[in-house]
Design brief:
about 375 residues; mainly alpha; about 65% helix; globular
């Protein structure tokens, strides 16, 4: 009896590393938004901190939402999975309502209710993660069948088409489909199907690019075809679709190894459009150089690694799929943003997570991080 020891209950896990990385990226993003947007805000007649204040407000609300969501058991959200999917579709359709639609920089992708604006595509990303995680868990082994495989793969198709056609936002449609594909890849052992689909998709894209590249000029073509031509030869379209890409490349090249110094960018002074949004990574390269760019990429890699650790140790499949969905969202968006800025792929409007300016984006990203932290809290330390 004397040698008998009481069994200590296993403690819950909390990923402080993940929280630190997210807070660092948010803080760094605020610094870069002020550095990048102060000149443009002044030109527009606002004070230099105009964009910074709006982003700080969204970040504070996002942090509050993250704390609330992190303290709610993640299975609570499973009952709202279908509502999230349908609600996403309804919000996208609401962009068509003249009284609610809001336009910025020539794009109508937001709905506005009073002083608040919301981008439905951001809601759709979170809604797709919740719905697919719940659906895959309900399907069980049926997902291994060909019918189940393609059913899950086609689930995001209506939302993707709506985002593409209604909000004219192909990049968000690609991200939503990419999230679904990654979650299916993790849940399904049928890797051959993915290889066939990937090869087929790559072949179709290659054929499309080939035929567009054979066009004599961009006149009379759609703006996406123009973007592909500008991607292949940006200098030939320097006064049009290639202008933003060239200015971004100039910023990256002029930064060198250590950069010009924080706040010392020249391209942000009216030369580079959307500097605080889609092209903020090029300003990071210009002001902080290759060192700063690699440092930020490493922070994102650490973030993805923490997601993988949590997903591998999640207490059930639903939690693991939620984390995989969030990981896919952030990873795909980071890859696409950096690829666009460096002209690796054709230019398409896509923000850099946690760093680019955008209230809806940072709010829903923080909600997703809150869900991941909730899944992490369900892990027992003895299981790690």
């Amino acid at each position: 009896m004397a040698g008998r020891q009481r069994k200590r209950p296993a403690e819950n896990y909390f990923d402080y590393s993940l929280l630190f990385i997210v807070l660092f990226l948010l803080g760094f993003g605020l610094v870069m938004i002020y550095s990048t947007s102060s000149y443009e805000a002044t030109l527009q007649g606002h004070e230099s901190t105009f964009y910074l204040k709006k982003q700080v407000m969204a970040t504070v609300i996002g942090l509050a939402a993250m704390i609330v969501v992190a303290n709610i058991p993640y299975h609570f959200w499973e009952q709202f999975a279908t509502i999230a999917y349908i609600g996403s579709a309804v919000l996208i359709v609401m962009v068509l309502v003249p009284q609610l639609q809001y336009s910025a920089n020539g794009a109508t992708r937001w709905i506005k209710v009073g002083p608040l604006t919301l981008q439905p595509a951001e809601v759709a990303k979170l809604g797709m993660i919740l719905f697919l995680a719940s659906l895959v868990c309900r399907m069980g082994r049926a997902i291994r069948t060909t019918k189940g495989f393609f059913m899950v793969l086609l689930i995001p198709a209506p939302i993707c088409v709506m985002i593409w056609q209604i909000t004219n936002n192909m990049s968000s449609a690609i991200i939503v489909f990419g999230i679904a594909a990654l979650m299916l890849f993790v849940a399904s052992p049928e890797y051959k199907k993915f290889i066939i689909l990937a090869a087929g998709g790559a072949a179709v894209i290659a054929v499309v690019i080939f035929f567009i590249s054979q066009a004599a000029s961009a006149e009379g073509m759609g703006f996406r075809s123009e973007r592909i031509l500008a991607w292949l030869d940006p200098e030939a379209y320097a006064s049009g679709k290639g202008f933003q890409t060239l200015q971004a490349l100039y910023a990256i090249g002029s930064g060198g190894i250590l950069g010009k110094g924080l706040g010392q960018s020249m391209q942000k002074l009216g030369f580079l459009p959307e500097a605080q949004n889609d092209m903020i990574f090029s300003i990071i390269c210009e002001e902080l150089g290759l060192f700063g760019a690699i440092s930020i990429i490493l922070m994102f890699l650490l973030l993805i690694w923490r997601f993988m650790v949590i997903a591998n140790n999640a207490s059930d499949l639903f939690g693991a799929l939620l984390v995989v969905g969030v990981m896919g969202h952030i990873a795909i968006q980071v890859i696409l943003n950096i690829a666009v800025v460096t002209n690796t792929i054709p230019n398409t409007g896509i923000s850099l997570p946690f760093i680019s300016y955008g209230g809806s984006a940072v709010l829903f990203l923080m909600i997703e991080v809150g869900i991941v932290l909730s899944v992490a809290k369900g892990i027992r330390l003895k299981d790690i």
